[in-house]
Amino acid sequence: MRDVVQKIVATENQAKRIVEEARAQADRILLDARKQAQDISMKAYQDAGREAQEIVGEAVRAAEEQKQARLAQASDAMEREIVVDEGSRQKIVEEIVRHVCGRG
Predict the structure, then answer these.
(1) Which residues of 55-93 are buried (b: 16+ CB within 10 A; e: fewer)?
(2) How far apart are CA 66 and CA 74, in angstroms?
(3) What is the pLDDT of residues 43-67, one digit of tens each?
(4) What average pLDDT does this structure show over 25-48?
(5) What is the number of structural domains in the chain?
(6) 18 lies in which domain range?
(7) HSE of 8 in the Cβ direction (CA atoms, 13 Å)?
């Protein structure tokens, strides 16, 4: 009878160790899964940040190109609309010289 009780106790102890090992393994698996999820999340966040920077950079480039095109159009329009004859041009130059030289 004593032998049977010892075998039962030994079996119970072995079962406890198996359960503890299974819990430890489950905890490791869970910890690893959380780490992988965190890594995936961080990578997705970084990828989204890079993509947003690229989109903003492209928008800035497009805006700069559009600005340059509008400036060129405005310059062309001003050159077409503003015509100064030689006499007026000479008077303007003289006025600028007087102003710059402090005589006006």
Answers:
(1) eeeeeeeeeeeeeeeeeeeeeeeeeeeeeeeeeeeeeee
(2) 12
(3) 999 999 999 999 999 999 999 999 9
(4) 97
(5) 1
(6) 2-101
(7) 5
